[in-house]
Structures are given as C-alpha cells and as structure tokens.
Specification:
heterodimer; A: 108 residues; mainly alpha; 3 helical TM bundles of succinate and fumarate reductases; B: 128 residues; 78% helix
C-alpha cells in the first residue's frame, strides 16, 4: 500500500512541481543568458536544491514503482513473498538512484 | 445522478461494459515507456555534459537529435501527467459538474504546457 501511495504522490507531485520547473528551465534557455542566470540563481539556492533533490527523488521513485507496475501488469510477481520483496526494492531503489544521481553529478 | 432511483450500482447494472476502459490503461503504458526512455536520456545528459551553463546547454539542445529527443520527452511526459492527474481527479473530485470543470482545466493546462515547451525548443534551436 505504501508503494502505491508513494507512486501517486511522486507522480502527481512531479506533475505539479517538476513540469513547471522543466518549463521554466526551457523558457529561460529560450529567452537568453539573463533569464537563464535568474533561473540558475534560484535553482542553486538552498531552497532550490531542496526542491531539485525532492524532484529527483520523485522521478526515480516513480520510475521504480512504474517498472513494478509493468511487471505486475504482465501478470507476474503476485506471490506474497515476491511482491513484498519488490515493493521494498522500489522504495530503496528510488532513494539509492537519487543518491547515485547527485553523487555522479557532483563527481563527474 | 440525482434523477436515478435506487443505488448507484443499480443505475448501471445490466448496461454492460463501456468498452473504452482499456484505452486509458494502454495510453498510460505507451506514454510511460516513452517517458522512461526520453527521461533516461535527459538524466544521462545532465551527468555527462561538462557543466550546465547557458552556453553548454544551448549548444547541446540546439542540435537536431537532442531537440527531437526533448520534443518527444515533452509530448510523452505531459500526456502521461495528464492521464495520471485524470486518475487523481476521478478519485477525489466526486461532484460530476466540478469533475468536468477540473478535467477541462487539466486538459487545457496539459496542452498549453506541452505547446510552450515545444515552442521553447524551436526558439532554442533557432539560436534564441
């Protein structure tokens, strides 16, 4: 049940916050260097990073539980043990991918 | 629903299937697959670009391949979000008139958002 709730929260949350940020980013790129500077100054502030880390988690969490939906829709993984194990994997996977993404972004 | 006598289930019993329930599910599958591929491309691009400065990003996004990929991303993601938010509206907005109004706004917002994103891509490609 938690995985289902998180799937909805991360998906709808990304739609309400992530898509406006995506459009702001594209709009700033289309408007020129000054507009892009004002975008990056907000995005790289402390609240900006909090939102971006939250969005990246929402993305990776929704991705993991979405792949789980693909498997379940194929009719597989309904045994209690298997289902529980992959539920845990989606939650841990979302957090791990978020951490890996930011580590790679900083290090690469 | 006020004019129908009896319970909600009684109003629909015997009418058979609406025959279009699978459409939403199939579109959800198709758009999620498209979003998965194009978003993975964008994530790896973020990681492998040397930096995310204006010059670097516009130089990358001005190319034909990246423009095409991000155009597909915009269509897939906004379509997917529109379908996902529709489910939320149908689950939590009970009043039929209010539900219709919210879904109308959702459709307009999804189309407007996708159109704005695609327009931005054209301007970035044209050198802004």
């Amino acid at each position: 049940m938690l995985v289902s709730i998180l799937h909805r929260v991360s998906g709808d949350g990304f739609a309400f916050v992530g898509l406006p940020v995506l459009l702001w980013w594209l709009g700033a790129l289309a408007s020129g260097p000054e507009a892009y500077d004002s975008f990056t100054s907000v995005a790289t502030s402390v609240p900006g990073y909090v939102v971006l880390v939250g969005l990246s988690w929402a993305f990776f969490n929704h991705l993991c539980s979405g792949i789980r939906h693909f498997v379940l829709d194929a009719g597989a993984g309904f045994e209690v043990d298997v289902n529980r194990r992959w539920s845990v994997v989606t939650i841990v996977g979302g957090i791990a991918l978020t951490a890996a993404f930011w580590a790679a972004l900083v290090l690469l | 629903m006020d004019k129908v006598k009896g319970t909600a289930i009684g109003a629909v019993r015997g009418l058979g299937s609406a025959h279009h329930g699978a459409g939403h599910w199939l579109l959800m599958q198709a758009t999620s697959a498209g979003a998965l591929i194009t978003c993975a491309y964008l994530v790896f691009t973020f990681l492998f670009l040397p930096d995310l400065s204006y010059g670097t990003v516009t130089n990358w996004l001005g190319g034909l391949g990246p423009t095409f990929a991000i155009a597909l991303l915009i269509v897939a993601v906004f379509w997917h979000a529109r379908l996902g938010l529709q489910v939320m509206v149908e689950d939590y907005v009970d009043h039929p008139g209010r539900r219709f109004a919210v879904l109308l706004v959702l459709n307009l917002a999804a189309f407007a958002g996708a159109a704005f994103g695609l327009l931005c891509l054209i301007r970035i490609g044209a050198g802004a």
